Model the fold of this input.
Amino acid sequence: MNLIDQRFAELKQQQKTALIPFISCGDPTLDDTIDIIKTLEEAGADMVELGVPYSDPLADGPVIQRASERALQHAVTLKDCIELGSRLRQQGVKLPLILFTYYNPIYQFGLHAFFELLKQHDISGLIVPDLPIEEDQELRQLAEHNNIHLIPLVAPTSNERVTRITKQAKGFVYCVSSLGVTGERSDFHAEIDQFLNLVRSASDVPIAIGFGISSREQVARFEQKCDGVIVGSAIVRTIESNVPLLRDPATKAEGLANIHRFVAELRG
Ligand SMILES: O=P(O)(O)OC[C@@H](O)[C@@H](O)c1c[nH]c2ccccc12
Done:
């Protein structure tokens, strides 16, 4: 069984919603990423999106772009990000791991080699935000063949495509709360609740919401309606403000404790 399904099944029994942080791998260094993910797990995260830093990230807001830039200063590669999987397992991290990458790095790497590596390093899920359903057949087939869940994104503007996208979903459906780029915000799409109802009725797998969620109140609002809540920029910004502490061995523990506090608060 795929670890993502297993975790959602456990959470359902406990009547809990998954908290799914997104982080940029290698921000500020790959070693820090390992310590940060251990911290996320301890603070109550249920799975994690491993963002692959990319130089041309169309849908990323400023916070995630800056994180990518910090990581790319020491040339973090797609391979480094995937290999984090085994390094995390060696450290005892049990969280299901979801790789988040734009399509071009996968294409450059070669699809078959890419899936081999994902399997080798215990990655359970994959999100490719710039690959539309009309063009994802090859990737989808390889993912299914390797028991890696290709998690689709649906937006309030997907309209008649919602059913088609949702029907094919594996792992969970990623519902985008609002339009534009990632980043914290105070308002969501006006018809967000109707949209979530629509996805819920069309979906056989859990549904999760992300984009702009940054506070305990917002997480709580969506816990009522969704099986998972994704938080990216708010956590990445917390990491950013602790970079000076993380960089100094004497204060690293304090930086990690600050990240722990924020994530535990989101978990509630
Ligand atoms: O940062 P936010 O607003 O919390 O949104 C989630 C998010 O960071 C992550 O899932 C993500 C990062 N880049 C993206 C691009 C498209 C869709 C989603 C994403």
Summary: Residues 252-267 form the longest helix (16 residues). Residues 22, 49, 51, 59-60, 64, 129, 153, 182-183, 210-213, 230-233 surround indole-3-glycerol phosphate (CB under 6 Å).
